[in-house]
Design brief:
6-stranded mixed β-sheet; about 230 residues; alpha/beta; elongated; single chain
């Protein structure tokens, strides 16, 4: 009996517990990725041949939406891809491109087939839900207005809509995903990065052209005389 008490006392000294604090961000990663994927798809639809080779100022004064920083960066990136030369102020620009957002948010839809949760009379606990099939769909949707003008003179304007989807289903404990544009974008980004990595340094600029000669100065072939010590004697 004494040995058992000593063993229990020894084991009690060896026991312990570990806890981990779990936190959640105010917005889920799925929500943010769906919104940014929708913005990316809208920007890919943007075609402005007017900006190619011209100084362009991107105006975000009327942009009011979630994730404005990402929308701004995506818009400036797209203008540069289209050949525009980005400038900081409208005074230095030939064209001004204004961006406004008519909507940027997510939609959620759920469908359930099976037994719903039901209350039990005279019991604080009801029967749990027993679905045979459940599907959940989340969609990020964006609408952008793009207005191009030259010192106030109309050049072009258009609306751009796009959406990104993610769906998953559960059937008798089996999970499947018919659509996941977040995963598709992830895989495409990894493939692009592997096949065409970003250069370590910026491409070297060509050397500047030499200055033209002053007016009235003719440039002929240079004459190089041979030193006397190097001439062959006959």
């Amino acid at each position: 009996m004494k040995r058992a008490a000593l063993l229990i006392a020894a084991l009690s000294l060896l026991t312990g517990c570990t806890s981990r604090r779990i936190s959640h961000t105010p917005r889920s990663a799925i929500e943010q990725l769906l919104l940014s994927a929708a913005v990316d798809k809208a920007m890919l639809k943007l075609e402005l041949p007017q900006v190619k080779g011209r100084k362009v100022h991107a105006d975000f004064t009327n942009l009011n939406c979630y994730d404005q920083e990402y929308v701004r960066a995506a818009a400036r990136t797209r203008l540069a891809e289209l050949g525009g030369v980005l400038v900081a102020t409208p005074d230095d620009a030939e064209l001004t491109v204004e961006f406004a957002c008519g909507g940027l948010g997510t939609e959620f839809k759920e469908s359930v087939i099976g037994l719903p949760a039901m209350p039990v009379p005279n019991s604080p606990v009801g029967t749990p839900e027993a679905p045979a099939y459940r599907s959940q769909e989340r969609t990020g949707i964006v609408k952008l207005l793009v207005f191009v003008h030259a010192k106030g003179k109309f050049v072009a304007a258009a609306h751009y809509y796009a959406k990104a989807d993610r769906a998953e289903g559960f059937a008798l404990g089996w999970r499947f995903q018919p659509t996941d544009e977040i995963r598709d974008g992830w895989d495409e980004s990894e493939t692009r990065r592997r096949d065409a990595p970003m250069p370590a340094t910026a491409p070297a600029e060509p050397p500047p052209a030499p200055d033209p000669p002053p007016a009235g100065v003719k440039i002929g072939r240079a004459h190089v005389s041979t030193p006397a010590c190097m001439r062959w004697k006959k």
